[in-house]
Amino acid sequence: MRIKSLALRAKAVVEGFYNGLHRSPFHGFSVEFSEYRPYTVGDDLRALDWKLFARSDRYYIKKFEDETTRRCYLVVDQSRSMGFGTLEYSKLDYAQTLAATLAHYLTLQRDSVGLMTFDAKLGDFISARNRPGHLRSVLVALSRPVAGEGTDIDAPLRQIAALVPRRGLIVLVSDLLSPIESLRTNLAYLRSRGHEVMILRVLDPGEMELQLSEAGMIVDMETGEEIYLDPEEARAGYRQKFQQHRDQLKTICDSLGVDLFEMPTDQPLEQALFHILSVQKRRSAGPARAGMVAAGAASGARSS
């Protein structure tokens, strides 16, 4: 995080991830997308590779270029609340680095990467592509400072569903510190259109546990409202409401098959890449190996 260049910061994280990958239980798995996938009932038999069947005694379907290239859209919260931070950097610094890291990693995978930023209004939108210079455009848009105030989590989810007709991976990077009454509806709509959805919830340690030591006036970063707060009186109630909000998010995501990961800003950024790799491997391996792959990703993240 001390590296000023967002591009170099992302590159450093990805290189560290690859080094950790070779020390993890994922060693031996190709991080490149295969040109084959296992046959499932209902697949077109004309796509079966009989030569591969003769060598392996297993049925595989040939993947075509359109099928092997994943389209990923990063939906990044740049609202005023993301400017908060009790460390040497803010949640926005962490979220921008996180999104840049994912963009760099997916580009190396030859996947198409797009971006949407938002606060109270929609910000930049860059269509998913994989061509020279595209990653730079994504990084330039990510590097913009906080400009908005409030957070409207619903508008970007509705908009991304309208703008992206072909199914892909939608990664929402946000603190989700906003009302979530309509979140279920918008996530359900994305899932109904065939998109895989992953939420990386970026939180500062000072938000996860109220760390104010003295009573005084505090200012709402998004509305500017001043509030008197006695941390001794507020701590128990804050903890209860924060956990209630967290439980509601988990319930919504679990019911819709949305992957939700908390990303505290004092934790290594490589964990996000392990989360994505874990999800990819789990879905390609099927239910039988899901638990083993998820455990392997967690162990690999610790070793890195």
UniProtKB/TrEMBL annotation:
Pfam hit, one: DUF58
Domain of life of the native organism: Bacteria
InterPro entries: DUF58, VWF_A, vWFA_dom_sf
SUPFAM superfamilies with a match to the protein in the record: vWA-like
VWFA domain sequence ranges: 69-242
Gene3D superfamilies for this protein: von Willebrand factor, type A domain
Protein name: VWA domain containing CoxE-like protein
Organism name: Rubripirellula lacrimiformis
Lineage, top ranks: Bacteria, Pseudomonadati, Planctomycetota, Planctomycetia, Pirellulales
